[in-house]
What we know:
40% of the residues lie in helices and 17% in strands. The chain folds into 2 domains: 5-42 and 249-336, Aspartate Aminotransferase, domain 1; 50-245, Type I PLP-dependent aspartate aminotransferase-like (Major domain) (Aspartate Aminotransferase, domain 2), CATH 3.40.640. α3 (59-73) packs parallel to α9 (234-245) and α4 packs across α8. The chain has 12 helices and 13 strands. The strands form 3 sheets. The protein has a 7-stranded mixed beta sheet with strand order 2-8-7-6-5-3-4, with helices on both faces. By secondary structure, the chain is α/β, with parallel strands linked by helices.
Amino acid sequence: MAGSVAALIDAFAVHGGRIDRARAAFPMVSTWTDLSTGIAPWRYPVAPDPGAWAGLPDPSAVAALEALAANAFGADAARVTAVPGTDLALRLLGAILPGRAGWVAPGYSGHRIMWSVDRAIPLAQGDWSAASDHLDAIVLARPNNPDGWRADRASLAVAADRLSARGGYLIVDEAFADATPGDTVAGCDWPGLIVLRSFGKFFGLAGLRLGFVIAPPDVQQRLRALIGDWPLPAPALAAGCAAYADSRWQAEQRARLIAGSQRMRTVLAAHDMKICGQTPFFTLVDCSPRDALFVHLARHGVLTRPFGAHQGWLRLGLPDNEAGWTRLAQALAAWRTT
Length: 338
């Protein structure tokens, strides 16, 4: 293993999915089970027509995708804008929206990065709502990454109303909401509400870089002006339309995610891991010594996600096959005997 443990943890705490770094740091490992992301391990089957790369994307295909996505979200299609990934959309919103903004911590690092340093104000989960009285924007995830916290729906409605009264906005990142469609705010018509939805996490196709912003007309117009006439490649449009039209596959995926998260809880509990948060996509444990456990799991071919600001937190996604579950269980069993 190259470098100090502290430097190693810092490198993996930025983002998940760094198998390239894992291979360099642990060259003795030949096979990896990557649990470092919250991306569903089961991918929607897409086989785009090679001819789709030949011409410019059809604007009518963008409209069709937005309509299908809106139906899946329970939202008004007129408020939905397809974007090349929600991470980019966050950064664009940070440039579009004026004033001081609060981001709820702990949370996704992109919620802080989207604002310039002089405008970003961290907010705690317990008191974020009160900040709607004096800030111009608030951004939070629901469910939250990495601890699965869900902001109270009534508090969200009040905050959106307060912010809107001063020309502000409440931004709710629902990147992990597709597994629980009955508990979202995407279809709410609260003034000043902006909702982001991810495609890749639920459909297991993060490399497609597709997402959606559900926003009032004024924000939508400015966003469309920035992303241009051809915001998405034709293969992404085709894949998105097929996936959102396939309600049967979506139901099967939700069942897989829920069953997988229940199995993860059972496996972790059997090895005395303290679970402090969970969604159908990932589970968060609080452990000590966390850094030693991260290294131990990596040496056994299991890549997890540490967090720099929380010294005990380790997040685990879902294995995509039985070999991955076995590798995780064996690594945890070995940890208990060390």
